[in-house]
Design brief:
This protein is of the alpha/beta class. Helices cover about 30% and strands about 15% of the residues. It has a single domain, classed as Arginase, Chain A. It contains eight helices and eight strands; from the N terminus they run βαβαβαβαββααβαβα. An eight-stranded parallel beta sheet has the order 2-1-3-8-7-4-5-6, with helices on both faces. α1 packs across α8 and α7 runs parallel beside α8. Bound molecules: manganese (II) ion. The site of manganese (II) ion (MN) has 5 residues, from loops.
Length: about 300
């Protein structure tokens, strides 16, 4: 038997143990350059619970995307430029948030130090804080590109709360708000002291993607970037399966256009969070998340082409 090629099974329903059918690498032994990790944690949720089932739902919905050799509008197959594996789901003792934080930070650090770029599938948005800590250890202070209905900069709340990560992350020196941007916001925050650039939902819906992309690229420059996509950035019409939906959000098309406009940027880590399948309909939310995650992989393919000196 020859080596496994991810393109050998392009069906939409079989062998979906890994994202897009990626081979499983539960011990992290592969020489792949991209690792996908499920993080089935939802103890930081303030609204409806259930994001612990997000990773499995996203993997299952990703089957729908497998028949395209080149995912539209890209013109090449991911497998031509990236070798990606699915590391399965993080293991942690249920109900123990402290152990969860340690396990996730350690697992992420182990993956990053093995030379892989990490794409994490949540789980509630709190998972981004331990992930930022791991990435900071290797990459130092980063710019944050953050898609969400909420700024998640709330000061109140417990140490484990999916609305507080970006209050704590700048205090810990993990990210620099002055070079970071939040996209799709449509809930209150402290307008006087807020340091992140906010492209709120109205600004995004009233402007074409190229102008928005220019603003984001200008803000982050050539810094190392952590990209986090809370699925509630999308309007509930496009992503009903989430814990804290907010009307008036982005279309999936606008979000995908903006994401593709980030090609060539130095994105060192990524996550897609807050998919709660129990409130989903017809896999709308899971498919949106799987498509966003696929675009994230294309951003890595573009990044590796740039770093190899090829045209991107
Ligand atoms: Mn969020």
């Amino acid at each position: 038997m020859g080596d496994f090629d991810i393109r050998d099974d392009a069906s939409s329903y079989s062998n979906l143990f890994g994202f897009l059918g990626a081979p499983l690498d539960l011990v992290g032994a592969s020489d792949a350059n991209i690792a996908i990790l499920g993080v089935p944690f939802d103890l930081g949720t303030t609204g409806r619970s259930g994001t612990r089932s997000g990773p499995a739902a996203i993997r299952h919905a990703s089957g729908t995307l497998r028949w395209e050799e080149a995912h539209w509008p890209w013109t090449y197959a991911l497998a031509d430029h990236l070798k990606y594996v699915d590391c399965g789901d993080l293991i942690f003792p249920p109900g123990d948030s402290k152990a969860f934080c340690e396990n996730l930070e350690n697992k992420a650090l182990e993956i990053i130090r093995s030379g892989k770029t990490l794409l994490s599938l949540g789980g509630d948005h709190f998972i981004t804080l331990p992930l930022l800590r791991a990435h900071h250890t290797v990459h130092g202070e980063m710019a944050l590109v953050h898609f969400d209905a909420h700024t998640d900069t709330y000061e109140q709340g417990s140490a484990v709360d999916h609305g507080t990560m970006f209050y704590h992350a700048p205090k810990e020196g993990l990210i620099d708000p002055a070079t970071s941007v939040q996209i799709g916001i449509r809930t209150p925050y402290d307008y006087d002291t807020h340091q992140f650039l906010v492209l709120n939902a109205d600004a995004v819906n009233n402007n074409a993607a190229p102008a928005l992309i220019e603003k984001i690229r200008e803000r982050v420059g050539n810094r190392k970037i952590y990209l986090t996509f809370d699925i509630d950035c999308l309007d509930p019409a496009y992503a009903p399966g989430t814990g804290t939906p907010v009307a008036g959000g982005l279309t999936s098309n606008k979000a995908l256009q903006i994401l593709r406009g980030l090609k060539g940027l130095d994105i060192v880590g990524m996550d897609v969070v807050e998919v709660a399948p129990s409130y989903d309909h017809a896999e709308l939310t899971a498919l949106a998340a799987a498509t966003i995650a696929t675009e994230c992989l294309y951003l890595q393919a573009e990044r590796s082409q740039v770093s190899k000196g090829k045209s991107g």
